[in-house]
Write a structure and sequence with these properties.
Elements (H helix, E strand, L loop, with lengths): L1 H23 L5 E2 L15 H10 L5 E4 L5 H11 L2 E2 L7 E4 L5 H10 L13 E6 L2 E2 L1 H5 L7 E6 L7 E5 L3 H9 L8 E6 L3 E5 L4 E4 L29
Parallel strand pairs: 2-3, 2-4, 4-5, 5-9
Antiparallel strand pairs: 1-10, 6-8, 7-8, 7-11, 9-10
Helix pairs in contact: 1-2, 4-6
């Protein structure tokens, strides 16, 4: 039993260092160890996404799951972490499984709490599963699913960092929010193999080949309006 507990502790420590490295180098591809197999883990929650979620979500914070069928995943996370489930607009952490469709991905980012100028730390972190994350070179070599190259600039980036990902709805929704720093949301992308990228609120995101920041013109139809600022002292 002690050996198992030590192994899980060391796994969590390595995962924590990976996420720290990802935030220190926005847009750079990192890797994280997947959580150990668990027979009761819902199908929507792969081992890599669970590993990321467990680093952030515990009984001291709140979370929301954005998925077509979120209840099983939410119940599992509540049982494992003792965190309370809240609506997206009020949650500290928003979990988006890789199977979530375009509409849900956009809504998750648009509705996440941006914090306030007085309390920007109340801005949410979106933990988003992806089908595939890779380097631009790997994307150019082909493979399924098709990938979009994303460019990240800003603090922590010498010039530009590039990565490739199968979904970009999160980037369009992020731009459509028009957050003013220090308000905004943090986004962590992770695929089933444990490839991971962090996009802090201070970063500028563009799609390769586009001249300006990812805009709202290509947003899916019928997405919700960007979230209102969370009030200081509001229950989170």
């Amino acid at each position: 039993m002690m050996i198992t507990e030590n192994a899980e502790l060391h796994r969590a420590q390595r995962a924590f260092r990976s996420v720290l490295d990802a935030f220190a180098h926005p847009g750079a591809l990192c890797t994280i160890e997947r959580a150990a197999d668990n027979p009761v883990r819902p199908a929507a929650l792969d081992g890599a996404l669970e590993s990321v979620v467990r680093l952030f979500v515990d009984q001291a914070v709140t979370f929301s799951v954005v998925d077509a069928e979120p209840d099983a995943t939410a119940a599992y996370l509540t049982g494992e972490t003792h965190a309370m489930r809240f609506p997206v607009r009020e949650a500290d952490f928003v979990v988006v499984p890789a199977r979530a469709d375009v509409q849900l991905v956009a809504e998750a980012v648009l509705e996440a709490c941006r914090g306030t100028l007085v309390a920007p730390e109340k801005g949410a972190t979106v933990l988003m599963g992806c089908a595939r994350l890779a380097t631009p070179e790997q994307a150019a070599a082909g493979g399924e699913p098709a990938l979009h190259v994303v460019e990240v600039r800003g603090p922590g980036v010498a010039d530009v960092n590039r990565f490739a990902v199968d979904r970009v709805e999160w980037a369009r929704a992020r731009a459509a929010r028009h957050d003013e720093f220090p308000c905004g949301v943090e986004i962590v992308l992770v695929d089933g193999e444990g490839n991971l990228v962090a996009v802090p609120r201070s970063s500028q995101v563009t799609l390769a080949g586009e001249d300006a920041s990812v805009g709202e013109a290509s947003m899916p139809d019928r997405v919700a309006a960007p979230s209102e600022p969370c009030l200081v002292g509001e229950a989170r």
